[in-house]
Amino acid sequence: MIKCVLLDDELPMLGYLQALCREFDDVEVVKSYNNPLKFLEDVDNLDFDTCILDINMPGINGLELATRLEGKAIIFSTAYKEYAAEAFDLDAVDYVRKPYQIERLEKAFGKAQIWLSNKIHTNPVYVELNTNFGKSRLNTNDIAYIVVAENDRRDKEIWFKGGQTLLAKNITFDDILERFPQGQFCKINRKTVIALHAVKHYTIQTVSCEIVPLKTPRQFKLSEQYREQFMSLLPG
């Protein structure tokens, strides 16, 4: 799910953009602004990952504003094509011309989703756990899934995408999910937590993830009580 903020100082154009965004099931409009200075006042309290940003606005233009939105997927919008080169110099994911068209927005949101996915995978998030080797510092991007240990259900067996395993000692799934990056791991049955970036295939009953040394993906049961949450967290 893309969490998007919209900025356009022209109210009719902003209203039209809001209406178009409502057509996308995988896009949530967190908030809309026609005043960039008001947006700057609120930005630290907003939960969003993507911004559709008009370039021509009073007070502060979109190009300058984008430099203050590090880590966000930026989609610039304008009626003037001469800003395109400068927009892409700021590492924007896309640049759309007004008037907005739903097909063009769909393409832009697709690029934003890819950008956000790549950002997750390239920025390591480390978690320190008590393991069978002592204190271990784990890169969560390398983890494929976690299961209850066979010998002691208080322990959890962590499987990495490269096929390695590690035993996390005396820890609950609730504690793991609280300490791991939010929205990137999901419990799919009572005995399994899976990394969403490792999902290879899924149905309403099963989830499969790929482990490099194995010839076929590892398949797990997707329990009904966890199905809705799993589906809601899947990107795209």
UniProtKB/TrEMBL annotation:
SMART domains, alphabetized: LytTR, REC
Occurrences of domain Response regulatory (ranges): 3-113
Transmembrane segments: none
Domain of life: Bacteria
Record flagged with keyword Transcription: yes
PANTHER family on file: REGULATOR OF RPOS (PTHR48111), TWO-COMPONENT RESPONSE REGULATOR ORR33 (PTHR48111:SF1)
Protein's recorded name: Response regulator
